[in-house]
């Protein structure tokens, strides 16, 4: 059997009761005012639950009842527009007045309309000549964690999970977040800087969709975990392969293509909604 996890900023009791009826759940347990577990739900009723939740703008997920937060050994995250609210390269571009041009390429890549490596190469080239101090300004002035990010991370970390932040963004930001959030491992692209200025090039191979997938698999195998002990989160088309490699691959406030293909979706609550999938102590 499954627990049906229902989440939204506001949840009305009549809607909960209707969802219990639709799912065949026998018990309603409150996790918080914004999250409830409906125990004994039948996944065969998924379509009816999905349709109703879409009509009332609630997030939902069928989670096997025997999965506990302590069973999750690895949490893998994308950075831009997932762990943090911004696309770092777009904000860097804003420092030289070319944010619209760069953001247009970013959006097309995240929708899956452009090859990610090509799109990143094109975007980084537009930054050539920018003073490297702009990176610190973006971190200080614009980078904010996604709502619920710290609660989510602390919950999984307290239960013993390792963490991997893997990004098609830049090491300047992932390294700072690793220290700030006590992350186990971070992987990203390194911007080439010469004489204090961006050259418009990336050092080494670009972190793309295949790299994200392979690094998840590598760390999962290092830790001796099964797929159902891994949670992965992302928002762009380049995250889909890694989401499919995790037992719990979650599209977080994601592009339509990602929402359509990811196993799970969070649209109406913060990243703590992913932690709420699991029974915690």
Note down, in words, how this protein is organized.
A seven-stranded mixed β-sheet has the order 8-7-6-5-9-10-11, sandwiched between helices. It is α/β, with parallel strands linked by helices. The protein folds into two domains: about 1-65, Alpha-Beta Plaits, CATH 3.30.70; about 70-280, Rossmann fold, CATH 3.40.50.1000. The model has no long low-confidence stretch (mean pLDDT about 95). About 40% of the residues lie in helices and about 25% in strands. It has helices at about 15-25, 45-55, 80-85, 90-95, 100-110, 115-125, 135-140, 150-160, 170-180, 210-220, 240-245, 255-260, 270-275; strands at about 1-5, 25-30, 35-40, 60-65, 75, 160-170, 185-195, 195-205, 230-235, 250, 265. A hairpin with a 2-residue loop joins β2 (about 25-30) and β3 (about 35-40). This is Phosphoserine phosphatase. It catalyses: O-phospho-D-serine + H2O = D-serine + phosphate; O-phospho-L-serine + H2O = L-serine + phosphate. Keywords: Amino-acid biosynthesis, Hydrolase, Magnesium, Metal-binding, Serine biosynthesis. Belongs to the HAD-like hydrolase superfamily. SerB family.
Count of individual domains = 2
Determine the fraction of residues in helical runs and give it as a percent range.
40-55%
Distance between the termini: 21 Å
CATH architecture level-2 label of the largest domain = 3-Layer(aba) Sandwich
Main sheet summary? 7 strands, mixed
Strand content: 15-25%
Return the structural class.
Answer: alpha/beta
Q: Specify the overall morphology.
A: elongated
CATH class of the largest domain: Alpha Beta
Please state how the strands of the largest beta sheet are arranged side by side: 8-7-6-5-9-10-11
User: Spans of 5+ residues with little confidence (pLDDT < 50)?
Assistant: none
> What is the tally of beta strands?
11
Average residue pLDDT: 96
Rg, alpha carbons = 20 Å
Going by CATH, the homologous superfamily of the largest domain would be HAD superfamily/HAD-like
Number of H- or I-type helical stretches: 13
CATH topology (fold) name of the largest domain: Rossmann fold
Helix and strand succession?
A: EHEEHEEHHHHHHEHEEHEHEHEH
Keywords: Amino-acid biosynthesis, Hydrolase, Magnesium, Metal-binding, Serine biosynthesis
Catalytic activity: O-phospho-D-serine + H2O = D-serine + phosphate; O-phospho-L-serine + H2O = L-serine + phosphate
Protein name: Phosphoserine phosphatase
Family: Belongs to the HAD-like hydrolase superfamily. SerB family.
């Amino acid at each position: 059997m499954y627990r049906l996890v229902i989440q939204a900023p506001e949840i009305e009791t009549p809607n909960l009761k209707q969802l219990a009826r639709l799912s065949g759940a026998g018990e309603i347990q409150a996790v918080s005012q914004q999250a409830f577990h409906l125990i004994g739900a039948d996944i065969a009723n998924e379509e009816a639950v999905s349709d109703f939740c879409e009509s009332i703008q609630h997030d939902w997920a069928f989670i096997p009842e025997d999965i506990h937060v302590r069973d999750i050994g690895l949490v893998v995250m994308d950075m831009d527009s997932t762990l943090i609210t911004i696309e770092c390269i777009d904000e860097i571009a804003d420092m030289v007045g070319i944010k619209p041009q760069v953001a247009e390429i970013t959006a097309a890549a995240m929708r899956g309309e452009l090859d990610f490596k090509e799109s990143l190469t094109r975007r980084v080239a537009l930054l050539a000549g920018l003073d490297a101090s702009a990176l610190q300004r973006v971190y200080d002035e614009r980078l904010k964690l996604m709502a619920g990010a710290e609660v989510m991370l602390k919950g999984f970390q307290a239960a013993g999970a390792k963490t991997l932040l893997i990004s098609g963004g830049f090491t300047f930001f992932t390294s700072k977040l690793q220290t700030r959030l006590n992350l186990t491992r971070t992987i990203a692209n390194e911007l080439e800087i010469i004489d204090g200025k961006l050259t418009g090039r990336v050092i080494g191979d670009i972190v793309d969709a295949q790299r994200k997938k392979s690094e998840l698999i590598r760390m999962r195998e290092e830790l001796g975990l099964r797929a159902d002990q891994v949670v992965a989160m992302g928002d762009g088309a380049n995250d889909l392969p890694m989401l499919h490699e995790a037992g719990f691959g979650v599209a977080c406030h994601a592009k339509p293509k990602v929402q359509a293909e990811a196993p799970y979706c969070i649209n109406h609550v913060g990243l703590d909604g992913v932690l709420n999938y699991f029974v915690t102590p």
